[in-house]
């Protein structure tokens, strides 16, 4: 055994550790938190009589209740240990990772105090921490922090929901402004996507639904600052989609323009999280208005596909509420070429006169933007990052994609994913802070105009769809960001380590001998999720290939908490036709019959195994030797066992056994 | 000082206590949790090499990082103490109370394990605990636990949102079924509100939108069990509002029936939480479809008002998505006469042939249903409850209202309010579990039919709008319910104590001498929120009355954490016209000029001061002597100071000073 080099980074202090190596730190500081919190209570009006006098704490009822609490807690602790060992280096399943010690302690402290970030009146401190977090993350993705705005949500679904709600409100705002201006005889100009300025009253319906976010919000600002006053406010409110609802709104459009507007759509790549379907259903947009843009072989939204989609929608005069790009897809950690998607939008504005809200669903990958910052607050080139990563990552293209986050209209990022803090912590960031006024529950036009900007920020409940939000989440993320900065020394380093580990695993899988089976990998991951499947040698049907991977998945997932497999993975399905671009090159290796089955939608798509590497320690040479090797051996053993002895489990397809090599 | 009787109930063991009297219990058990959790990590593959070897924990980088964590945590603890001392007996502001020790310890244990209750694959234990909680609460409100279903949400807003989403899906389902049946030539019968059975194909649009929840879901079940198969599934999906979206859906209706359907509405009382407005805006229903039903002098929805509203909507052929009743309004803790509202619905079904989804927003008051259960699982009469409360509460009517929760279609209850657990913990309960299938993201008709009911329950993400949900919340509520049962010995006792405290305060305010001012109270609260305002003697304008109460509020609220007032309250505004029924009797005492100003919507409504008594200890005689007296004295002193010396602050109204008595 050779001597291991000591880790010259603070990473060993960031987590409790796979074997609770830092348990002394957690214990000591958690105790500090409890004592500090108890001390606050003891110091508050110490002269008041006790709420729980000592004689009340020596009754049989008291003792029995404490015993009941102890017994219940014991049961709970036993139950919880039947859960997923996400801390383990052997867990490579879903997007469940470690939590930072700072995140755990911050949450615990916040939980005891239990503020509610609905308004600073009940969360004086944690509302301010929430603003700091939003500022941290806005800066990291390249937004101008003072012009943008952000808030915590319970997670990515709500952040995405709020983004789309805001996008829809911004899309329809110029229409409401046109109605109101017409009603009150106010003349206004507005900027078109080609940057020309025209009278609002001169625009047709489709043009009104193709005003860029900035000019749409300029319109709001001009109107708020105009002298038309309460009449205008009332008129704007009356004509908004939020007030009228879809049905009355559509009828009003028809009366004014003489024809019906086509339902507006939302564009997503095949890799979009399934919550986008929930969201368009709930918002009344309708699932059939969710338009899938093709993905390329790297599972990234295809810019040419986007262009074709936009052009075709433009021809049919269908407005686009938003285009959702993905930064770190939940299945493959694919990072869309956001820079190219921005170019498509610019081209659409120039050539077609149409535009759309560009949202990046960076719930998983957003924190990876930290690798692009050095400790002095300067952006690093991809080459500079590669010099520290020591692997062929990130590519120049990847870097451009991350830098393009600055050009989106909104971004969702989950601190409870690659921010490594406890649930629940999602974040919505909006580039133009004025957009939030369009979803405020008190219509902004009805607000007394004398609230300062900071004071407005403190009444977070006005802009949040959720009412109650735990201030503990703000405390948790805030402390984690203080200990682990959003640059190459902090989260950048942490995420880089996970990517290095993932690439080690990826290389090992590419080189592995699992004969008679063969491992087919998807392209090198953009972040840290490795996708692959096993081909069982000569067999040819898609169902049979899937079956092998399903049994391996069953072997390598948790069936009984008392009987954990050596390594734990997850699996996903790449479905036709949305995943065509990504699956086409894979199918090329499998023959035309399988390709045809996939294209025909047979067998529910292609089953793909998935190893999520959120473990930052795997990157270490000595640990990779143990766990990368162990992982591949476990996989090979599972595949061989099934191919050799357990054929009957493999497939319900008749004649199957005869065809095994 | 007389000897105090020892408290013969476990209540002293339920909380940390206003002066952290139970800090030894919290410390000891929190440490147990950490050690148990660390032990799990240590026991997991103990032979694996350490992720954080000891030599990595003695580097300068490591030490510096731990110091940074300590410093950050110190800062956080200082910041958090600038928050609201909700534990204090002197805090009577918003709905922020203590948290149970069980809730705190359960959350902490769950937080360390950090399961995600999206699917049992990542939360094997806490998904089951969530099902137990839902079962506990369903039973408490009188639902048949096996026929109903429930889940955790981040809070009341999301629970209410999901309830309305489900109500809308159920409302429009018979329409989709009629379209699909027509398309495929399937003949079906359906039950009308008057209990007659007719062919689905014979119904007009308005009748299709007036099928009760049960028969609507029977239709779903019949269709799922029919042999029509995938064609039917596809057709149902195509015709659902969720798929089509409002615009295409409305056009389809017009094509089929030859006329447009009027937008469906949502009925709420004036006391409804402001989140209902957010919800109808986001869902595409539209704020103008939110119809306010009058309230009576107790701030409860007026059953006659509901009947008139329903009759008038029925005449105009406007369908009702849901009627939202409130159990424990956030401002006044008013409990609607749900039993009478149920009767209105029955009458509407009989006499008008119309029906609606009845939802109880019991986010605040739901847990009070625990007082209606004895420890043997039998319902108690109101008289029996009064015998233990020792005050004139609850009334027979109150008891009937709580029992009527069993007759609703859905109920939202926040464990983080009167369940006294940390944020975030809301719960949605649905009486007919089949309704959840209509909002499942995989359309149920497309699901392989072989999932068992229990297995389906474990994939909670299908039915939850939120994706990620902290399993810690489930652990917290579960443990709190185990220690404090949902009956007269547990939560019933706890909430009864808060009501007793509130009534003591109410009585004291009614009797208080704050001359020259006069205290005007709202009627005795249904739960534990006491609302009142001060009338400054002879002054007559509404603005002047409001001004006095605003300055008292400012005196008795937190401006600087370092300078807390002796007692802390909050305030609200009763606005015209929604609050007319409640404000009319109050105005009668203030003269016709003020009444006219209120009716005209001047001064933003009537400002009312609000004392929320979530403190269970105030009910004790010795503590009431200190704090009820102290509260009234603080209030009187504030009023007198302002009336005597600080008149100029009181009002911007010209000539004001001259009119002070």
Written account of the structure:
The structure is a homodimer of 661-residue chains. Chain A is built from 22 helices and 13 strands. In chain A, the strands form 3 sheets. In chain A, strands 1-9-8-7-6-4-5 form a 7-stranded mixed beta sheet, with helices on both faces. Chain A has helices at residues 23-43, 60-80, 101-113, 124-141, 156-184, 205-208, 213-225, 229-239, 241-257, 275-282, 303-315, 338-352, 382-389, 396-403, 453-458, 471-483, 491-511, 542-555, 580-588, 592-599, 621-645, 647-650, and strands at 149-153, 189-191, 197-199, 265-269, 290-293, 320-326, 357-361, 410-413, 426-430, 518-521, 529-535, 570-574, 606-612. Chain A is 45% helix and 10% strand. The relative contact order of chain A is 0.13. Chain A is of the alpha/beta class and 661 residues long.
SSE map:
Two copies of one chain form a homodimer.
Chain A: H1 23-43, H2 60-80, H3 101-113, H4 124-141, E1 149-153, H5 156-184, E2 189-191, E3 197-199, H6 205-208, H7 213-225, H8 229-239, H9 241-257, E4 265-269, H10 275-282, E5 290-293, H11 303-315, E6 320-326, H12 338-352, E7 357-361, H13 382-389, H14 396-403, E8 410-413, E9 426-430, H15 453-458, H16 471-483, H17 491-511, E10 518-521, E11 529-535, H18 542-555, E12 570-574, H19 580-588, H20 592-599, E13 606-612, H21 621-645, H22 647-650
Parallel strand pairs in A: 4-5, 4-6, 6-7, 7-8
Antiparallel strand pairs in A: 1-9, 2-3, 8-9, 10-11, 11-13, 12-13
Helix pairs in contact in A: 1-3, 3-16, 4-16, 5-7, 5-8, 5-10, 11-12, 17-21, 18-21, 19-20
């Amino acid at each position: 055994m050779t001597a291991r080099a000591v880790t010259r980074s603070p990473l060993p202090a960031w987590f409790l550790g796979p074997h609770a190596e830092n348990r002394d730190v957690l214990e000591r500081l958690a105790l500090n938190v409890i004592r500090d919190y108890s001390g606050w209570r003891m110091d508050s009006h110490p002269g008041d009589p006790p709420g729980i006098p000592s004689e009340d704490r020596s009754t049989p009822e008291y003792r029995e209740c404490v015993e009941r609490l102890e017994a219940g807690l014991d049961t709970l602790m036993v139950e919880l240990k039947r859960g997923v060992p996400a801390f383990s280096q052997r867990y490579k399943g879903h997007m469940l990772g470690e939590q930072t010690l700072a995140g755990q302690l911050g949450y615990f402290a916040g939980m005891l105090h239990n503020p509610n970030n609905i308004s600073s009146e009940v969360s004086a401190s944690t509302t301010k921490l929430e603003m700091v977090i939003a500022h941290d993350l806005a800066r990291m993705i390249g937004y101008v922090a003072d012009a943008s705005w952000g808030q915590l949500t319970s997670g990515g679904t709500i952040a995405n929901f709020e983004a789309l709600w805001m996008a829809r409100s911004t899309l329809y705002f110029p229409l409401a402004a046109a109605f109101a201006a017409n009603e009150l005889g106010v003349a206004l100009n507005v900027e078109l996507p080609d940057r020309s300025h025209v009278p609002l009253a001169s625009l047709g319906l489709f043009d009104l639904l193709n005003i860029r976010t900035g000019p749409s919000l300029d319109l709001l600002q001009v109107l708020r600052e105009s002298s038309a006053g309460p009449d205008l406010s009332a008129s704007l409110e009356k004509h908004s989609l939020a007030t009228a609802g879809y049905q009355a709104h559509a009828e009003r459009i028809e009366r004014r323009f003489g024809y019906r507007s086509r339902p507006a759509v939302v564009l997503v790549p095949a890799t979009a999280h399934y919550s986008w379907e929930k969201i368009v259903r709930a918002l009344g947009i309708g699932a059939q208005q969710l338009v899938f843009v093709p993905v390329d072989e790297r599972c990234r939204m295809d810019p040419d596909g986007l262009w074709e989609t936009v052009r075709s929608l433009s021809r049919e005069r269908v407005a686009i509420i938003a285009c959702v790009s993905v930064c770190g897809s939940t299945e493959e950690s694919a990072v869309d070429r956001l820079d190219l998607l921005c170019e498509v939008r610019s081209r659409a504005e120039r050539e077609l006169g149409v535009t759309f809200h560009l949202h990046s669903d960076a719930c998983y990958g957003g924190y990876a933007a930290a690798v692009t910052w050095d400790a002095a607050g300067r952006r690093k080139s991809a080459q500079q990052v590669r010099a520290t990563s020591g692997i062929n990552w990130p590519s120049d293209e990847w870097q451009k994609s991350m830098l393009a986050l600055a050009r989106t209209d909104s971004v969702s990022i989950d601190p409870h994913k690659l921010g490594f803090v406890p649930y629940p912590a999602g974040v919505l960031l909006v580039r133009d802070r004025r957009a939030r006024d369009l979803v405020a529950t008190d219509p902004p036009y009805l607000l007394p105009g004398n609230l300062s900007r900071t004071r407005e920020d403190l009444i977070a409940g006005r802009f949040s769809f959720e009412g109650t939000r735990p201030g503990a989440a703000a405390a948790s993320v805030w402390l984690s960001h203080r200990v682990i900065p959003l640059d190459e020394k902090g989260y950048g380093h942490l995420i880089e380590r996970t990517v290095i580990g993932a690439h080690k695993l990826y290389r090992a899988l590419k080189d592995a001998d699992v004969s008679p089976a063969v491992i087919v990998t998807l392209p090198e991951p953009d972040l840290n999720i490795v996708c692959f499947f096993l081909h069982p040698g000569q067999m040819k049907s898609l169902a049979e290939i899937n079956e092998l991977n399903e049994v391996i998945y069953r072997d390598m997932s948790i069936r009984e908490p008392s009987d954990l497999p050596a390594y734990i993975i997850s699996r996903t399905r790449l479905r036709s036709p949305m995943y065509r671009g990504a699956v086409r090159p894979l199918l090329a290796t499998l023959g035309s019959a399988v390709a045809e089955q996939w294209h025909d939608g047979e067998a529910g798509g292609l089953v793909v195994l998935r190893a999520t590497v959120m473990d930052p320690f795997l990157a270490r040479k000595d640990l990779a030797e143990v766990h990368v090797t162990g992982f591949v051996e476990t996989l090979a053993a599972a595949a061989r066992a099934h191919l050799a002895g357990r054929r009957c489990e493999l497939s319900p397809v008749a004649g199957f056994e005869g065809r095994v090599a």
